[in-house]
Amino acid sequence: MENIKIYKGDIVFTKQTDYFECFKDGYIVVNNNKVYGTYSSLPEEFENLEIIDYSNNLIIPGFVDLHTHAPQFENRGLGLDKELIPWLETYTFIEESKFKDIDYARNVYSSFVEKLKENGTTRAVLFSSIHKEGTKILFDIVHSSGISAFIGKVNMDRNCPDYIKEDTYESLNDTIEIINEYANKYPLVKPIITPRFIPTCSDKMLISLGRIANEHNLKIQSHLSENQGEIDWVSELHPQIKGYANVYNSFGLLKPKNTIMAHCVYSDENEMNILKENGVFVAHCPASNTNLSSGIAPIKDMLNNNLNIGLGSDISAGHEISMTKVMVLAAQLSKIKWIYNNRNSSFLSTSEVFYLATKGGGQFFGKVGSFEKDYEFDALVIDDSNLSKLDLSLEERIQKFIYIGNHTNIKKIYVCGNEIK
Amino acid sequence: MENIKIYKGDIVFTKQTDYFECFKDGYIVVNNNKVYGTYSSLPEEFENLEIIDYSNNLIIPGFVDLHTHAPQFENRGLGLDKELIPWLETYTFIEESKFKDIDYARNVYSSFVEKLKENGTTRAVLFSSIHKEGTKILFDIVHSSGISAFIGKVNMDRNCPDYIKEDTYESLNDTIEIINEYANKYPLVKPIITPRFIPTCSDKMLISLGRIANEHNLKIQSHLSENQGEIDWVSELHPQIKGYANVYNSFGLLKPKNTIMAHCVYSDENEMNILKENGVFVAHCPASNTNLSSGIAPIKDMLNNNLNIGLGSDISAGHEISMTKVMVLAAQLSKIKWIYNNRNSSFLSTSEVFYLATKGGGQFFGKVGSFEKDYEFDALVIDDSNLSKLDLSLEERIQKFIYIGNHTNIKKIYVCGNEIK
């Protein structure tokens, strides 16, 4: 072992969904940026090595935001009395069109990334806008921050206002230019193929993006079954294909284990099966789904059904960039869905929403989001001393942090072994 | 006019539920702590007077928290995978029993009141614990803070653990002692009669509390129809009376226009009519109602039906003390209820939840929660400059503050004309 680091503190993570792994005054041994082991007491072999001592602080995995829109950052909290399509048309497209201006892009993206990092998001999957130069700036800013991310230049060439509609060829060329420039430029920030959603992408666009993803070995992200109006629209646009997910699939855009579909609010059993068969990651975005009156996604059912699931802040339909706030709302909505389902089955517990925001979404990045052996060491050191005067268990302390903590409790941040704060 | 003060800024409030009153670079003229008028341009008669200039800041009414439990403050974020009765028994009663210790009470109540004030709550209706001395300390601390409140020593003499169960006579005597000492001690902090809820109060207790409220001209608060298990329990305890609200009514505890009932999640048409006839204030507690899997109260229907309604943080079943967070969740849950109701009628808009958190709850205190003529001047001065780089209308700025602002944006606080921060 070459490059050992040992961290001491009150360690909490979720190996499985249904309970917290807790090590009071425990140790995480990191070897070459990966977890070598997590222990209640330090094994003899490490006894003479230096210990980075975070005693009395919580050490937890960094948070994973599986779906969010960087260029919508300035729009947080606006237009939330509307539903998806009018919200897009009244607020979102106009704001995104501003990212043609690279100074505006640099300015807003800097604030966005700063907030993301400040709130302990160590991994994020981002939509940029359609703009090539603005997207490149986002790559550079995210890399500088130390966060790990997949970033997608958005593609859209139909059914949207002219000021934000792309020419198909230009859109594809811009996408390839970004891939060529950024696929190997940064170790932790990579491109991802990003058709906005079916209604705004021509068949030619969708087929070509599927091909590019294959040729360049890239992951894919888009939106699925968020809103009934949207679903009906997709069905009108593709009457020959049954089911929204199958439209993506028919264009080669459900790449096994490498695709994120945000929302999946109205995914029925058929659609869930398609998602499961293809190992699609569902990005559950509870704030967005309530703010835009979309609905409550059947996440507990999906979890029981062993689908891949993570959480998304979905800025700006979601207003909260903090993943702890997203976790809380995921638990709350799950309880409401359970009530309306006559309290059959159960709702998402605190450990389950924590799992979704760490290991659940982390799996999209590889071995990320846990302190099990060989996981990349992404960690937050949490000083929770101001959150309670009570004598609490670690399970209770992590609950308290999730419910009433905030970014000011985050003292240190590690991404893939690197201390970035 | 003797004691005129003039405030200038970007004024926003809700006279009615359905839209924001906005005065860009407007003026509020306050005479003897009450609003004399709100203007777009300053009337001639005031032209030579000094102006307190908050230009570019929002000036909005202070927030009203119509239902919260001060001695549960340390429990925020704990036990929220449970429902009401097990949550009470596992966490809440044990924590409240600690308030026998006046040092503990002083310590926790100081933190609680500081947080309440910090978040812009200028009026609150509080449950204390059963403890007389601890309750007196709460009166003193709230008075010192400058906030206005009704504070109730809790009464409970059955169906609860012995360590928190009161002797009926002692409970009533303690209640009367507090009334005698505090009814006229502080101008803005007053006692309120507070039976915990029907299951934990004997008939003798309930009858006596109704009488005390009448004799001493006091307001009343309690809990109603929060959870189905609780409702069934009440019906078993009082089989001769039909409907939970009627149990309170039969003991003289629905005092016209002077009673708050928290929750009312399961209030049907009959119960709503009783609440309306008696001018009962419904304290809607969205965070509590989701955290404990209680349900979604039919607030939009109640509002359409002209009931008196305010919002409550309901610490600690609710985890957020900030009324803006409570507003957001009220809007979100209302959208979910609307979806499950096949999108009939509509959901609570941003102006409606703002109204509930200001004028709606404020009416329990008199003319409070608005900048109309003769309203007591409770105000928050909000520096929202860090919330957006966009050029926004006042309606949009207040939305942004509600959704993404926090206590750090609150620059000044006024309660009944007094600057308290």
What is shown here, in short?
2 copies of one chain form a homodimer. The first copy, chain A, is α/β, with parallel strands linked by helices and 421 residues long.
Structural notes for this entry:
With 421 residues, chain A is α/β, with parallel strands linked by helices. Helix content of chain A is 36%, strand content 22%. The first copy, chain A, folds into two domains: 4-62 and 370-419, Urease, subunit C, domain 1, CATH 2.30.40.10; 63-365, Metal-dependent hydrolases (TIM Barrel). In chain A, a hairpin with a 2-residue loop joins strand 16 (410-415) and strand 17 (418-419). The longest helix of chain A has 18 residues, at 323-340. Chain A is globular, with a radius of gyration of 21 Å. The first copy, chain A, starts with a strand and ends with a strand. The mean pLDDT of chain A is 97.
Write the layout of secondary structure elements.
Two copies of one chain form a homodimer.
Chain A: E1 4-13, E2 21-31, E3 34-39, E4 51-61, E5 63-69, H1 84-97, H2 102-118, E6 121-127, H3 132-145, E7 148-152, E8 154-155, H4 168-182, E9 189-191, E10 194-195, H5 203-215, E11 220-224, H6 228-237, H7 244-250, E12 259-263, H8 269-277, E13 281-284, H9 286-291, H10 299-304, E14 308-311, H11 323-340, H12 350-362, E15 379-382, H13 394-404, E16 410-415, E17 418-419
Parallel strand pairs in A: 1-4, 5-6, 6-7, 7-9, 8-10, 11-12, 12-13, 13-14
Antiparallel strand pairs in A: 1-2, 2-3, 4-15, 15-16, 16-17
Helix pairs in contact in A: 2-3, 3-4, 4-5, 11-12
